[in-house]
Amino acid sequence: MSFEYPQDFRYLDTHEYVRLDGEIATIGITEFAVDQMGDVVFLELPEIGDLVTKGETFGTIESVKAVEDLSSPITGTVIERNEALIESPEEVADDPYGEGWFLKVRINDPDEVLDALTADEYRAQVEGE
């Protein structure tokens, strides 16, 4: 299977992605991660107004195979969470980079994202190149 790695995103080695749009970061998990997990059955996300901290757990995703912690690629305040995905977590598989986003965060320091992997670095890691 061939996975997408949007070039304007940054990635964590734990398979979360972040897309910056000014001071707003959109966070989710990669198509590769969704494929590896199988059918997603539960998603736990922080509340609006909560602080997420780079490198720390902000929630969990549960599939028929495993429960995985979600790590934040950036520090900031949650301004929106994907309620539709909390209601129907299996839909993350349909469009992980579009409608399958988890959080929108008002970021404290956009330079934090520079520590994350580029699309090419992430692709090389997951494809074992």
Architecture blueprint of SSEs:
Blueprint: E1 10-11, E2 16-21, E3 24-29, H1 31-37, E4 40-44, E5 51-52, E6 57-63, E7 67-71, E8 76-81, H2 83-87, E9 103-107, H3 119-126
Antiparallel strand pairs: 1-2, 2-3, 3-9, 4-6, 5-8, 6-7, 8-9
Could you walk me through the main structural features you see in this protein, from its secondary elements to its overall organization?
There is one protein chain. Strands 1-2-3-9-8-5 form a six-stranded antiparallel β-sheet. A three-stranded antiparallel β-sheet has the order 4-6-7, with no helix packed on it. The radius of gyration is 13 Å and the shape is globular. The longest helix has 8 residues, at 119-126. It is an alpha+beta fold. It has helices at residues 31-37, 83-87, 119-126; strands at 10-11, 16-21, 24-29, 40-44, 51-52, 57-63, 67-71, 76-81, 103-107. The model has no long low-confidence stretch (mean pLDDT 95).
